[in-house]
C-alpha cells in the first residue's frame, strides 16, 4: 500500500544520510523539512506541524526512511481557531522512539488528506475522528460515522455541540436488518448474513455484516458503536486527581482494571511530573498481572465457548480460576471487577492485614496454576477437534498485522515481537525476570497459545512481586507519593503514553488546558485496531472460522467503542 | 378480561401481545399472566384459581434467561451462571441464545442510542409472559455514564422493567437475589408497577422549531418514529 507513495517522495533521498541518527528530532525534521510548518513538541515525542495536503508524503517518508512503522493512534481535537489531527507514530522495534505529526486545518473547511493509503489502521481511526470531532479526510475510502448512528446530528466532541438538542432514532434503525438484503446483487449467488448486535458469539454487542458465497465469507464488515458510552467525554468532565480514575476500569472490563488505570496513571503522572514510590510500583505490577490472568482466562473460556458451543467444562474451569483471581483482587482492592485501585502517584491501599494470609492465598493460586494449565492443555490445545477448527484459520500475517496497528497477544501470535512492558519499560517490569511470548503461526491457534503462555509469565511476575513485597522493610512501605490536592498541568502540555493492557497497547493522550480537567482526553484502544483487521483475517474463509477468529481476537466491546 | 368474568368463547386474545404498552395497561391481574389455556378454563372459576396458582409457581420455578450480554455487568452475569454462584440452583440457570425461547431478559449494561432500538426488537421477539431484570446502574439510570451524549438514561426509556438491581456492577449474589425476588413476585401473581415511558410516537409539536427539527420533520415519516431522545427532559 505504501509502495506507490515511495515514488512520490524523491526529495527525501538527499536526507537519507541523516537516517543513522534517525532518533534525533533534527534528523527527522531534515527528512520532512519541505512540509514542516513548525515544531510543536509533546512531552513524549517531538511534534511537527505539517500542511494538510502533505499527510501521505510525510507519513510514508517517516515509515520508509525513518522506520516509524506503527501508527499508534490518531487524535482529533477542536481548538478555538482550528481543528487538529495528531498522528502518533512509533516503531514496533523500539516504541520509545516516537514522533507526533500534527495536521491543523481551518475551522471553516476542516479537510485534511487521509493517511489510509500509508497505514491501513488510519481507516477506522479517521472515521472515529470524523464521527466525534468532525474533521474530514480527503480521499478516505469510506468516511462515514463509525460509533454513532447514521442519523446523528453534529459532532459531540466538537466545541459547539449542544448536548441538549434532541437526537432522533427512527424505526428504520429498528427494522429487520435482513429485509431486502438476502441477496447481495441480482445475478450473484452471494447471501447477506447478519450477525449481531445481539448474538452469543460476538462477545457483547458487535454487529458483523457478512456476505457469504456458499459457506465462504466473501466480505465482512464489523459495525461497532453499540456500546459507545462517551468514555472520552466523561474523562474530559472529571478532575485529574480522583474523578477520572474510576472510568478506565470500564474500558476493558475483562477485568483489565489495574492495567487500564495504569494507562491513565502513566499519562497523567507524566503530565504532572509525579514520581511513584518503588513499593507502589510493585503493588501495581502484581495487581496488573493478576488482572491480565483474569482477562486471558476470560478470553480462553469464551473462545472455547465459541468453538465447542457449550457451557461446560472449559468455560466453567476458566470461570472457576477467575473466581480465585477475583477473590484475591477483592482482598487487595475492595471490589471484584471495578477495582479503582490506582491513584496518581501510587495506589490507594497497602496489602490487607494480615499480610501473611494474603500472600498465602496468592501463593496457593500460583502453586495450583501449573496443574490447571496442564489441564487446559489437555482439554484445548492438544484436542484434535480444536486444532481442526483453529490451526491455519484466521491467519494474520506479520506485515498486515503491523499495517493495521495490531498489538498485544494478537500481534505476538503473528510473530510481531512487541510488548510495551519490555520495550517502553514502566512499573517494576524492568527489574523482574520474565519473557515476551511470541508465536509465528498467525492463526487462531497461535493467538490462544500466546495467551496461555502469557498466563505462565504473569504468574512468574506475580511470584517475584510477592517475594519482594514479603521482604519489604516495614517502615519503607510508601504507597503514595505526595501529590497536590488539585492538579493543574500547564496549559498546552500534551502527552501520549501507552501501557501493555491485556489486549495490547493501551494508550491515553491528554492535552492540558490549564484547568483541573483535561482539555482533550483520547483513548487508544487495542481492541479497536485489532478488530479492524478482522476483514483481512476472515475474507475467503468459512463462516464458522469467522466466529473462531472473532473469539481469538478477544475483543471487549467496551474498549472498542469506549 | 379478569378471571372472574366467565366467557363462552375465546375471541380476542389470539393477537401476539407484542404491543408492550397495551399489555401493561388495564387493571386487575396483569395481562401477562393470561394464556389461551387460561381463557379456556375461564368458565370454571374454582379450578381456575388453583390452576393459576399452579401456573404461577411453574413460571417462577422454571425460568429461561435470555443470553444477552451488553457491557461490564455481563461478565458478572456469566459468573452468576457458572460455578460457585450457579444460578441454576434457583431454577433460572440455562441461558437461551434465542429470544423466542426466553422468559426473562437481564439487561446487563449501558444502553446507548444505537443499541436501544435493537434491544426493543429483541424484547419484542420474546413470547409473553416476559419479564425484565435491570442489572446495574447503567440500565437503571445510565449510571456513571448518565451525562454522556450517547447514553439512554435507563432501559425503562425503552422497555418496561420488573426488577432493578443496583451496583456497578452488582455482585453475583445481588443478581441471584434480584432473580429470586422476581420469582417470588411471579409465584405470587403480582405484577410490578411498571412505568412505561412514552417511547412510541411523539409529536414534533413540543420541540423548538429549529433547522434540525425542520430537517427531521421533512425527512421522517411520523408513522415510523419510535423513539425520541430528549436529553434535557429525561429523568
Automatic annotation (TrEMBL), chain A:
<keyword id="KW-0560">Oxidoreductase</keyword>
<keyword id="KW-0472">Membrane</keyword>
<dbReference type="GO" id="GO:0008137">
    <property type="term" value="F:NADH dehydrogenase (ubiquinone) activity"/>
</dbReference>
<dbReference type="InterPro" id="IPR001135">
    <property type="entry name" value="NADH_Q_OxRdtase_suD"/>
</dbReference>
<feature type="domain" description="NADH-quinone oxidoreductase subunit D">
    <location>
        <begin position="312"/>
        <end position="473"/>
    </location>
</feature>
<keyword id="KW-0520">NAD</keyword>
<dbReference type="InterPro" id="IPR029014">
    <property type="entry name" value="NiFe-Hase_large"/>
</dbReference>
<dbReference type="InterPro" id="IPR001268">
    <property type="entry name" value="NADH_UbQ_OxRdtase_30kDa_su"/>
</dbReference>
<protein>
    <submittedName>
        <fullName>NADH dehydrogenase-like complex subunit CD</fullName>
        <ecNumber>1.6.5.-</ecNumber>
    </submittedName>
</protein>
<dbReference type="GO" id="GO:0048038">
    <property type="term" value="F:quinone binding"/>
</dbReference>
<feature type="domain" description="NADH-quinone oxidoreductase subunit D">
    <location>
        <begin position="493"/>
        <end position="562"/>
    </location>
</feature>
<dbReference type="GO" id="GO:0016651">
    <property type="term" value="F:oxidoreductase activity, acting on NAD(P)H"/>
</dbReference>
<comment type="subunit">
    <text>NDH-1 is composed of 13 different subunits. Subunits NuoB, CD, E, F, and G constitute the peripheral sector of the complex.</text>
</comment>
<dbReference type="GO" id="GO:0005886">
    <property type="term" value="C:plasma membrane"/>
</dbReference>
<feature type="compositionally biased region" description="Acidic residues">
    <location>
        <begin position="1"/>
        <end position="14"/>
    </location>
</feature>
<comment type="similarity">
    <text>In the C-terminal section; belongs to the complex I 49 kDa subunit family.</text>
</comment>
<dbReference type="InterPro" id="IPR037232">
    <property type="entry name" value="NADH_quin_OxRdtase_su_C/D-like"/>
</dbReference>
<dbReference type="Pfam" id="PF00329">
    <property type="entry name" value="Complex1_30kDa"/>
</dbReference>
<feature type="domain" description="NADH:ubiquinone oxidoreductase 30kDa subunit">
    <location>
        <begin position="49"/>
        <end position="166"/>
    </location>
</feature>
<keyword id="KW-1003">Cell membrane</keyword>
<dbReference type="InterPro" id="IPR022885">
    <property type="entry name" value="NDH1_su_D/H"/>
</dbReference>
<dbReference type="GO" id="GO:0051287">
    <property type="term" value="F:NAD binding"/>
</dbReference>
UniProtKB/TrEMBL annotation, chain B:
<dbReference type="GO" id="GO:0008137">
    <property type="term" value="F:NADH dehydrogenase (ubiquinone) activity"/>
</dbReference>
<dbReference type="GO" id="GO:0046872">
    <property type="term" value="F:metal ion binding"/>
</dbReference>
<dbReference type="InterPro" id="IPR006138">
    <property type="entry name" value="NADH_UQ_OxRdtase_20Kd_su"/>
</dbReference>
<feature type="domain" description="NADH:ubiquinone oxidoreductase-like 20kDa subunit">
    <location>
        <begin position="72"/>
        <end position="182"/>
    </location>
</feature>
<keyword id="KW-0479">Metal-binding</keyword>
<dbReference type="GO" id="GO:0009060">
    <property type="term" value="P:aerobic respiration"/>
</dbReference>
<feature type="compositionally biased region" description="Polar residues">
    <location>
        <begin position="11"/>
        <end position="20"/>
    </location>
</feature>
<comment type="similarity">
    <text>Belongs to the complex I 20 kDa subunit family.</text>
</comment>
<dbReference type="GO" id="GO:0015990">
    <property type="term" value="P:electron transport coupled proton transport"/>
</dbReference>
<keyword id="KW-0520">NAD</keyword>
<feature type="region of interest" description="Disordered">
    <location>
        <begin position="1"/>
        <end position="29"/>
    </location>
</feature>
<keyword id="KW-0411">Iron-sulfur</keyword>
<keyword id="KW-0004">4Fe-4S</keyword>
<dbReference type="GO" id="GO:0016491">
    <property type="term" value="F:oxidoreductase activity"/>
</dbReference>
<keyword id="KW-0560">Oxidoreductase</keyword>
<keyword id="KW-0408">Iron</keyword>
<dbReference type="GO" id="GO:0051539">
    <property type="term" value="F:4 iron, 4 sulfur cluster binding"/>
</dbReference>
<dbReference type="GO" id="GO:0048038">
    <property type="term" value="F:quinone binding"/>
</dbReference>
<dbReference type="GO" id="GO:0045271">
    <property type="term" value="C:respiratory chain complex I"/>
</dbReference>
<feature type="compositionally biased region" description="Basic and acidic residues">
    <location>
        <begin position="1"/>
        <end position="10"/>
    </location>
</feature>
<keyword id="KW-0813">Transport</keyword>
<dbReference type="InterPro" id="IPR006137">
    <property type="entry name" value="NADH_UbQ_OxRdtase-like_20kDa"/>
</dbReference>
Amino acid at each position: 500500500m505504501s509502495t506507490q507513495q515511495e515514488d512520490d517522495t524523491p526529495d527525501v533521498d538527499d536526507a537519507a544520510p541523516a537516517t543513522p541518527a534517525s532518533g534525533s528530532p533534527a534528523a527527522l525534521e531534515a527528512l520532512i523539512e519541505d512540509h514542516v510548518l513548525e515544531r510543536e513538541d509533546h512531552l513524549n515525542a517531538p511534534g511537527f506541524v505539517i500542511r494538510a495536503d502533505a499527510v501521505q508524503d510525510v507519513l510514508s517518508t517517516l515509515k520508509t526512511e525513518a522506520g516509524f512503522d506503527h501508527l499508534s493512534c490518531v487524535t482529533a481535537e477542536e481548538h478555538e481557531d482550528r481543528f487538529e489531527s495528531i498522528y502518533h507514530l512509533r516503531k514496533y522495534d523500539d516504541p520509545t522512539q516516537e514522533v507526533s505529526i500534527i495536521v491543523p486545518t481551518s475551522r471553516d473547511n476542516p479537510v485534511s488528506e487521509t493517511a489510509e493509503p500509508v497505514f491501513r489502521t488510519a481507516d477506522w481511526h479517521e472515521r472515529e475522528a470524523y464521527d466525534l470531532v468532525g474533521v474530514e479526510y480527503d480521499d478516505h475510502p469510506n468516511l462515514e460515522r463509525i460509533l454513532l448512528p447514521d442519523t446523528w446530528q453534529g459532532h459531540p466532541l466538537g466545541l459547539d455541540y449542544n448536548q441538549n438538542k434532541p437526537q432522533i432514532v427512527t424505526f428504520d434503525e429498528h427494522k429487520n436488518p435482513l429485509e431486502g438484503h438476502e441477496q447481495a446483487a441480482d445475478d450473484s449467488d452471494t447471501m447477506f448474513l447478519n450477525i449481531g448486535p445481539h448474538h452469543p458469539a460476538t462477545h457483547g454487542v458487535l454487529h458483523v455484516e457478512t456476505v457469504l458465497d456458499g459457506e465462504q465469507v466473501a466480505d465482512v464488515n464489523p459495525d461497532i458503536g453499540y456500546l459507545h458510552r462517551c468514555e472520552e467525554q466523561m474523562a474530559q468532565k472529571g478532575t485529574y486527581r480522583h474523578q477520572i480514575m474510576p472510568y478506565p476500569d470500564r474500558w476493558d472490563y475483562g477485568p483489565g482494571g489495574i492495567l487500564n488505570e495504569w494507562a491513565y496513571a502513566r499519562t497523567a503522572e507524566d503530565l504532572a511530573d509525579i514520581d511513584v514510590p518503588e513499593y507502589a510500583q510493585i503493588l501495581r505490577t502484581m495487581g496488573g498481572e493478576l488482572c491480565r490472568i483474569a482477562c486471558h482466562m476470560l478470553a480462553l473460556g469464551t473462545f472455547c465457548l465459541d468453538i465447542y458451543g457449550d457451557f461446560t467444562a472449559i468455560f466453567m474451569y476458566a470461570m472457576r480460576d477467575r473466581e480465585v483471581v477475583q477473590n484475591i483482587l477483592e482482598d487487595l482492592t475492595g471490589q471484584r471487577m471495578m477495582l479503582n485501585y490506582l491513584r496518581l502517584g501510587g495506589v490507594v491501599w497497602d496489602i490487607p492485614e494480615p499480610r501473611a494470609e494474603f500472600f498465602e492465598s496468592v501463593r496457593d493460586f500460583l502453586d495450583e496454576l501449573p496443574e490447571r494449565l496442564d489441564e487446559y492443555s489437555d482439554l484445548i490445545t492438544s484436542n484434535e477437534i480444536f486444532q481442526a477448527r483453529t490451526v491455519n484459520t484466521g491467519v494474520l500475517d506479520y506485515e498486515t498485522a503491523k499495517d493495521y496497528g495490531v498489538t498485544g497477544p494478537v500481534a505476538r501470535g503473528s510473530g510481531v515481537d512487541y510488548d510495551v512492558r519490555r520495550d517502553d519499560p514502566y512499573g517494576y517490569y524492568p527489574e523482574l525476570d520474565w519473557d515476551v511470548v511470541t508465536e509465528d503461526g498467525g492463526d487462531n491457534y497461535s493467538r490462544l497459545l500466546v495467551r496461555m503462555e502469557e498466563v505462565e509469565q504473569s504468574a512468574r511476575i506475580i511470584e517475584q512481586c510477592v517475594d519482594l513485597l514479603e521482604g519489604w522493610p516495614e517502615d519503607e512501605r510508601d504507597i503514595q507519593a505526595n501529590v497536590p490536592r488539585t492538579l493543574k498541568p500547564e496549559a498546552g502540555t500534551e502527552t501520549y503514553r501507552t501501557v501493555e493492557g491485556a489486549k495490547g497497547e493501551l494508550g491515553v493522550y491528554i492535552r492540558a488546558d490549564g484547568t483541573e480537567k483535561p482539555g482533550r482526553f483520547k483513548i487508544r484502544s487495542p481492541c479497536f485496531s485489532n478488530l479492524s483487521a478482522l476483514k483481512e483475517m476472515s475474507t475467503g474463509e468459512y463462516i464458522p472460522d469467522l466466529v473462531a477468529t472473532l473469539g481469538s481476537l478477544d475483543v471487549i466491546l467496551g474498549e472498542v467503542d469506549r | 378480561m379478569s378471571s372472574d368474568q366467565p366467557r363462552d368463547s375465546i375471541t380476542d386474545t389470539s393477537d401476539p401481545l407484542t404491543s408492550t404498552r397495551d399489555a401493561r395497561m388495564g387493571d386487575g391481574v396483569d395481562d401477562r399472566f393470561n394464556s389461551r389455556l387460561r381463557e379456556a378454563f375461564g368458565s370454571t372459576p374454582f379450578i381456575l384459581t388453583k390452576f393459576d396458582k399452579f401456573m404461577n409457581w411453574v413460571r417462577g420455578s422454571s425460568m429461561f434467561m435470555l443470553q444477552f450480554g451488553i457491557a461490564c455487568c455481563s461478565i458478572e452475569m456469566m459468573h452468576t451462571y457458572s460455578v460457585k454462584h450457579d444460578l441454576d440452583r434457583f431454577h433460572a440457570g440455562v441461558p437461551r441464545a434465542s429470544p423466542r425461547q426466553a422468559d426473562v431478559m437481564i439487561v446487563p449494561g449501558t444502553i446507548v442510542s444505537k443499541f436501544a432500538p435493537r434491544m426493543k426488537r429483541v424484547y419484542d421477539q420474546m413470547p409473553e409472559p416476559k419479564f425484565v431484570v435491570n442489572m446495574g446502574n447503567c440500565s437503571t439510570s445510565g449510571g456513571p455514564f448518565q451525562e454522556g451524549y450517547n447514553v439512554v438514561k435507563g432501559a425503562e426509556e425503552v422497555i418496561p422493567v420488573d426488577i432493578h438491581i443496583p451496583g456497578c456492577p452488582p455482585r453475583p449474589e445481588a443478581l441471584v437475589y434480584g432473580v429470586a425476588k422476581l420469582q417470588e413476585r411471579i409465584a405470587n401473581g403480582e405484577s410490578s408497577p411498571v412505568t412505561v415511558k412514552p417511547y412510541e410516537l411523539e409529536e414534533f409539536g413540543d420541540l423548538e422549531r429549529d433547522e434540525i427539527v425542520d430537517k427531521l420533520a421533512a425527512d421522517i415519516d411520523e408513522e415510523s418514529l419510535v423513539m425520541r431522545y430528549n436529553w434535557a427532559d429525561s429523568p
